Amino acid sequence: MSLSARLKSHVRTLPGAWATWRSMAVAGLAVAALVGVLAIGAAHRAARAAATTGDIELTMWVMPVTTAAQRDVAALVQPWLAEHPRVHLRLTVLDWESGWNKVTAAAASRRGPDLLELGTTWMPAIAAMGGLEPLTPAQVAAVGGAGSFYPELWKTTGVLGQPGCYGLPWYADVRAAYYRTDAFERAGVDPRAAFASWPAFRAALQKVNGVQVVGKRVAALAYAGKNDWNVVHNLAPWIWNAGGDVLTADGRHSALGTPQALRAIDFYARLAADGLVPPNALEKDSDILEGAFVGGDYAVIFSGSWLIRRIFESPPGTPVREHFDVAPYPPGDQGHATFFGGSNLAIFKGSRHKAEAASLLAFLGSREAQVRLSLVSSMMPTRPDAAADPRLAARHPAYAKLAAIARDGRAYPPIPAWGPLETVYTKHLGALAELSSGVSGAYSEPAMRALVATTVHEADKVLKEAE
Questions:
Q1: Under 8 Å between Cβ of 61 and 43
Q2: Do 78 and 23 touch, CB atoms closer than 8 A?
Q3: Domain segments of the chain: what residues?
Q4: What's the CA gap between 344 and 121, in Å, rounded?
Q5: Which CATH superfamily is domain 3-171+342-410 in?
Q6: Which of 9, 268, 299, 303 is exposed most, by the fewest CB atoms within 10 A?
Q7: In this predicted structure, what is the pLDDT of residue 33?
Q8: How far apart are CA 312 and CA 315, in angstroms?
Q9: Are strands 11-13 and 338-347 parallel, antiparallel or unpaired?
């Protein structure tokens, strides 16, 4: 069977609509059930065929790293399949909304794929459940060792306070400031000075706010409020750069109530309270705001490298295509860290083909495979040598700047309870939008401190329950 046939016959996608199955009508449920039965039947037939021929069926679950993940990931692994003619790859594309439930169910039952993608904050929880196979020193050495990856991302492959590595960093979410160069030029703002410090950043936003570019009035800054999953990711770099943290060093308590964290939260909230973030922006999610940035509504937005792809895909003549650049977070008293997230790859504990899964894992963790994935996805590599590849910078100079920014990337502590903790943080810190937009009256630091105190109390309860 040809490579394309071997992949095509085994690739399937779990649609995002399944995440809202509870709201389906009876007829819709019947259709979904029928699809599931057919998929299971196909899997069993493929497994029987593999057993008959002596071939190996390797299963892999991934998330939608590109808009056509089943095609792009299939193409990415073709060189490896060419060297392993007895292996058939069954690739399943999950979605972020329902993927967590499917992965945890697999970990609990020990019935799942051979290889799977996990968000960096998911990995400690699945490892703590016993769902992942620890990598051996030889398997780590096969990709050049831990030193081949960004240290902060390598940290996410383990569990805080415990030995062991449960996978490899696959692709990175590196946050940076995206700004309109034409808006800055029209306002007479030097970007190098604008992102040099917190006071300089505020002053730059004040100058650029309301400037007219291509006949459109541009607002200074966009960031999402309570209706967004990025609330913590957007705020964390400001806290880190003020010398604060989201958790204590032992991972057992929230650290949002420290003076450093409170100062950062106050600065961040006042950007909106002072009119530099439009109130209606705080009611939208990141996806809508990123589209509005591409459409020319905002001068600055903090986002990940996927925004470059979105800019490239905008219609010809869209001003932002020729007039954007990236910059690091403005440094605080303690540096200019950025948020570092993304996804890892791991071998499932229940895998029946761990040797083959480890081989494919090593291939996908290699420099060349990471560069190729970045070229089709716009996500950043997790290896510095791949991030520095000239093929990325050739697409746009912003990639070289993102590679430099990634050196200051910082990840969350790898604790199994991060999921419920982030839910608490997102719920309560999202309420900052109501404080800073004036919905609940004029913004005040005491009101902000009271909100954070409630957040810390609820967060500590979650962390205590997880012990």
A1: no
A2: no
A3: 3-171+342-410
A4: 9
A5: Periplasmic binding protein-like II (3.40.190.10)
A6: 9
A7: 32
A8: 8
A9: unpaired
Is the backbone of residue 107 left (phi > 0), alpha (psi -120 to 50) or beta? alpha
The pLDDT tens digits for 58-73 are 999 999 999 999 999 9
Torsion of CA 289, 295, 299, 305, to 10 degrees: 60
Residue 11: beta bridge partners? Answer: 91
Number of helices followed by number of strands (H, E) in the chain: 23, 14
Q: Hey, is 279 helix, strand or coil?
A: helix
**Which of 235, 272, 226, 269 minimizes the C-alpha distance to 255?**
235
The amino acid at residue 221 is L
Q: Where are the alpha helices (DSSP H) in 181-246?
A: 181-187, 191-194, 198-208, 231-241
DSSP label at residue 314: S
- Quick check: 326 and 302 in contact, CB under 8 A? no
Paired tokens of 462: 């979650």
> Do residues 123 and 346 touch, judged by C-beta distance below 8 A?
yes
Instruction: Give the residue carrying structure tokens 């799942």.
Output: 112
pLDDT of residue 35: 33
SS3 label, residue 60: strand
Query: How far is it, in rounded angstroms, from Cα 409 to Cα 396?
Result: 21
Q: Furthest-apart CA pair in the chain: how many Å?
A: 72
Listed residue (61, 117, 58) closest to 92, CA to CA: 61
- Structural contact between residues 98 and 402, judged by C-beta atoms closer than 8 angstroms: no
Spatial separation of the C-alpha atoms in residues 332 and 342, rounded to whole Å: 24
Helix, strand, or coil (residue 268): helix
pLDDT band at 54 (very low <50, low <70, confident <90, very high): low
Phi, then psi, of 104 in degrees rounded to 5? -65, -35
Cα–Cα nearest to 268, from 304, 299, 232: 232
Read off the tokens for 163: 């030995």
Task: State pLDDT tens for residues 371-426.
Answer: 999 999 999 999 999 999 999 999 999 999 999 999 999 999 999 999 999 999 99
